[in-house]
Write a structure and sequence with these properties.
Elements lengths: L1 E3 L8 E3 L33 H5 L4 H16 L6 E2 L8 E2 L10 E9 L3 H8 L5 H13 L5 E11 L4 H18 L2 E9 L9 E12 L14 E6 L8 H10 L7 E2 L4 E2 H5 L7 H8 L8 E6 L4 H7 L7 E5 L7 H10 L14 E7 L4 H10 L4 E6 L11 E4 L2 E9 L5
Parallel strand pairs: 6-7, 13-17
Antiparallel strand pairs: 1-2, 3-4, 5-8, 6-8, 9-14, 9-15, 10-11, 12-14, 16-17
């Protein structure tokens, strides 16, 4: 049994495992409903309507669990364990004994105000992939393999189908990245959030052998910067998107001829998942050691995120001519009256991930990434020569990194 815990009698995530299923709800008054064949789940409150009068619907939580549990179970291998009580998800770490010096990598994130668009359209089946991408693709940046993830959903009113849709999306993306979804919480916050409002967050843990850790210390003069294409805006810069839309009196249901879809459809394009293909390339014996560092292009934009994975004293000029920003970026920039160059610190403009690689094997790495389905191109070359860094972005988010600037004009 594995209990994906829920505090305060909210929505327990009960997931099928190889041991008998029981659930212990973590709350003052347990309100639960038997699952066929499983018997009583706990003490039933003498007056189950009291909590409902306060705006918390535990029965809806039971329904949500039934709708989501099969998708979550598919993320579990034999290393996922459980126990009576279920205050924590359990993951068998015995495999780590095969490492000489295993380093655990952790990451936590959300999807920002992209959820506002999902809520406006009542479309919730893509937000889960966004969440996994934002969390797990940060872990692979250091070369780590994700092990497990937990999620947290806060909502104004627990609508079973909505919550299940979100969690199914999380589970499917976890399955695609080889990550076990071992825990989660769905919390109703009546009076704090509107009935259609929710927010999502997640955290994950991965592992990497210490001598295979990727990072700035591996980067050197002449290394090649490879860019990997994004699927769209991913999950950053949506406050600016919403500001532009509001300023032009546009609805997410409005059709855009430039995008060939409604604005909502274009904006909710799921964040690309890079973890599985990157791990396969990193594990390729023919390319062992070829990738020196990786950068996930998220909040802060292109230059700042690349600078974080370069050592102090190195610099690179990213050639804008090497790619053409996706139509969604061009159209939104036009709507807002902005140049693409002015948006490089807010949006990814079509680059989701960078790889800094050994120059002698850059072609082979690029070919392998393309074979994995990742659009890949050369964006620049690392240099250690002395120069003036005026106009460069140097490090970011507390990291004393290298220097990066974008040069040239974008390809049409």
């Amino acid at each position: 049994m594995l209990l994906l815990r829920t505090k305060g009698c909210r929505a327990p995530r009960l997931i099928k495992s190889r041991t008998p299923r029981r659930v212990l709800l973590r709350c003052t008054q347990w309100i639960a409903r038997p699952i066929p064949g499983q018997g009583r789940l706990g003490h039933v409150s003498e007056n189950p309507s009291i909590y409902a009068q306060a705006g918390v619907d535990t029965a809806a939580g039971d329904v949500a669990v039934e709708l989501m549990k099969s998708a979550v179970a598919r993320t579990h291998g034999p290393e996922v364990l459980g126990g009576v009580g279920g205050f924590a998800g359990l993951f068998d770490a015995s495999a780590l004994t095969g490492y000489t010096r295993p380093l655990l990598a952790s990451s936590t994130d959300g999807v920002g105000t992209k959820v506002a668009i999902a809520q406006a359209l009542d479309k919730h089946d893509t937000i889960g992939q966004d969440l996994v991408a934002m969390v797990v693709d940060d872990i692979v940046v250091v070369g780590a393999k994700p092990l497990f993830m937990t999620d947290y959903i806060a909502c104004g009113k627990l609508v079973p189908e909505r919550i299940a849709s979100i969690v199914r999306g999380i589970a499917e993306a976890c399955e695609a990245t080889g990550t076990a979804l071992v825990g989660g919480e769905t919390a109703e916050h009546p009076g704090l959030l509107g009935v259609d409002d929710y927010d999502v967050a997640g955290a994950a843990v991965g592992v990497v052998e210490a001598d295979r850790l990727l990072g700035p210390d591996r980067v050197g003069d002449g290394d090649v910067v490879l860019a990997m294409g994004a699927s769209g805006l991913h999950s950053n810069g949506f406050s600016l998107v919403r500001h532009i839309m509001t300023g032009r009196d546009l609805l997410y249901t409005d059709h855009s001829a430039e995008l060939g879809a409604t604005y909502g459809e274009a904006l909710l394009e799921p964040t690309a998942l890079y973890t599985a293909p990157l791990l396969r390339v990193l594990d390729d014996p023919a390319l062992d050691g070829a990738i020196h560092s990786l950068s996930h292009v998220t909040g802060g934009g292109i230059a700042a995120n690349l600078a974080r994975v370069l050592p102090v004293g190195t610099w690179v000029e990213v050639d804008r001519q090497s790619w053409s920003p996706l139509p969604v970026f061009r159209h939104l920039a036009d709507l807002g009256g902005h140049s693409l160059e002015s948006l490089e610190g807010a949006w990814n403009l079509g680059i989701g991930m960078f790889a800094v690689v050994d120059a002698a094997r850059a072609g082979a790495v690029a070919d392998r990434l393309r074979a994995e389905g990742l659009t890949t191109w050369v964006a620049g070359t690392i240099s250690t020569s002395a120069r003036d860094f005026s106009g460069f972005e140097q490090g970011a988010k507390g990291v004393d990194g290298g220097a990066v600037r974008l040069v040239g004009s974008y390809a049409v």
